[in-house]
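Hi U.,

Before I forget, here's the chain from the pilot set. I'm dumping it here mostly so it's searchable later in email.
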Amino acid sequence: MKYTLDTIPVLDAYKTGCECPLCKLKILCEDQYVDTMLASAYMEPEWRIKSNETGFCTRHYDLMFNRRNRLGLALMTHTHMQEVIKSIEAILAGGDASKKGLLASLRGGKADENGMPAKIRARIGGCVICEQVDNALNRYGYTIAQLYFTNSEFKKLFAESKGFCLPHLALVLEMAEKTLSGSQMVEFKKAVAELELENLKRVESELEWFTLKFDYRNADKPWGNSKDAPDRAINKLMGACVGEEAEMPAHND
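Structure:
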């Protein structure tokens, strides 16, 4: 796959000083794509066909539900539901594979991956917005790996940054393996590893101090950077999902 550089968004995300710049970019992408789907995309045949077939995950349904355009969401959901009903009808008419799945489970084996339950889960397991976000984050991961060797401003921002959450650490390393080679890949992986371990230990230390502050002997000692350490520790481990770093941009709707 050919990737393109997205320099400005990456630089802007690094300048915020957040725990994971890719989490920052992910949230901005989600906000943009949710708005797009509820603005004009749901009226465009290409996107309507895609949303009819694929649908949305619970997170992105929730984000769209809380925006102003309930009519647009209702129209997309209606035609998607019509497509889902056709699929479910075909699945339910295809014979009962549950007995095989039950016997397999009783014997300690896996249930039939081609049975009705698996097919139903697969049918509702897609999300148009997730696909777009994943594609954008792949580009941003590629951009990070490339800018490290081509942009002195970025290299300085990178060195002063707080690393990545663990899911995005894996993404950046994956993109480096796909797009760098030889000494560049070795150098980049080494820089990422040193930065990541330093910041994981920093957050762990701040989290420990958060817990120790509840000991009466530490009541009068300063919090330092530990007041929001539980939030940042969770986000470091799993990606931005709690606290301020997980908040979507404010909207007037």
